[in-house]
Amino acid sequence: MHYQNNHNTHYLKKHWKKLFYPVAVAASLTSSFSWADTTIRMLHLEADPKVVAIWEQVAKDYEKANPGQHVKLEYLENEAFKQKLPTLLQSDQRPDIFYSWGGGNFQTRVDAGLLKDVTKEMKDIKSRFSEASFDAYNYHGKQYGLPYMVSQVGFWYNKSLFNKAGVDADNVVNWDDFLAAIKKLQAAGITPITTAGGDKWPVQFYWALLTMRQAGQQGIQDAIDKKGDGFAGKDFIKAGEELKRLVDLNPFQPGYLAASFGDSSGNFGDGKAAMQLMGDWNYLFQAQQSISGKGVGDKNLGWMNFPILKDGKGKATDTLGGIAGWVLTAQASPEAVQWLKYFSNIEMQKHLAKINMIIPVVKGADTAIENPFKKRIAQNIASSTWHQLFYDQAFGANVGSVVNDVSVGIVGESLTPEEAAEQVQEAWEFE
């Protein structure tokens, strides 16, 4: 999925001690522990070689300071990770630590007894993290892991294509403004939006954000609490109707229902569409997936928050995104707990933030962010009036898959807004 960058990997290895001297010092502090010879398996879905190179060097320093401990970083591609993880967790091949988005899936695994309670072990480093991010891995008062990064979903746009069509992003405030911009782009012969119906989850962002803008935080919470008509209520139908208004304009690229996330990001990176609704992680991915490998350069790249609905209850400062991190499986060793604590240090968070890989969760690490897009998104999250976790994570695997399916159903015109809302409510009633 990502391109290997040998130069960056060589640079990181060559300058590691300079960049991470405090990490090496921290490693020496753990060397007094006398652990038994053991292997710590950490399952992740990070494909970028620059990030993996950093993790591997941290692991090597840790192993050097802790003889007998071996950290094994294991990779699974995003969709394969989602599909295989449930089976892995029930097998004797389960990892000690694995990547987690929190939310409903995380809570279900706690209820099933699959995760390790590390409340006592993590108490001494709780103050290291922002409260919201740390609590994302707390359930019924118990801690099961640590956060790693936060994210936000919004519209990435191509400034040159906007200029060609006479669209001013600063004037796109509400949904009607957005639909008017779609028409202007089409009139200029430009494909307005690229999306990925084949992977489904990118399309889910539209339904999720429109329901947030229409129902607002209290309306979403009422639906979760099964009050009134829940997800089949008027606000959720209205959100679907607004999505249908967009679909009726035929704004997407040819073949969008079969397109993958990589296809969609490549289209945007190649300048074949003016916008892509995606998370902050797409800053690098659209470049990696483009033919040139450079994508839409910083001079032509723009970011818009999702527009509001005129009569909606949601606020422009309500954000959708993720809080991603790591959890420990029930049989994880004390060594695995110690490694995760060590792994979650400010120096690594700062460096990853500086090279545009993450929006960090360790307090103070955000000062290392230099990229203006990442800075803006970090500020958006910091000032958010409500940060909603991705629906397909927040609502658990069963309901989340229905949300993905009905979103594609509306966009593919195989479901009405009413049918979509009813299907989500029906799925939620069985949770």
UniProtKB/TrEMBL annotation:
<feature type="signal peptide">
    <location>
        <begin position="1"/>
        <end position="36"/>
    </location>
</feature>
<protein>
    <submittedName>
        <fullName>Extracellular solute-binding protein</fullName>
    </submittedName>
</protein>
<dbReference type="InterPro" id="IPR050490">
    <property type="entry name" value="Bact_solute-bd_prot1"/>
</dbReference>
<dbReference type="InterPro" id="IPR006059">
    <property type="entry name" value="SBP"/>
</dbReference>
<dbReference type="Pfam" id="PF01547">
    <property type="entry name" value="SBP_bac_1"/>
</dbReference>
<keyword id="KW-0732">Signal</keyword>
<comment type="similarity">
    <text>Belongs to the bacterial solute-binding protein 1 family.</text>
</comment>
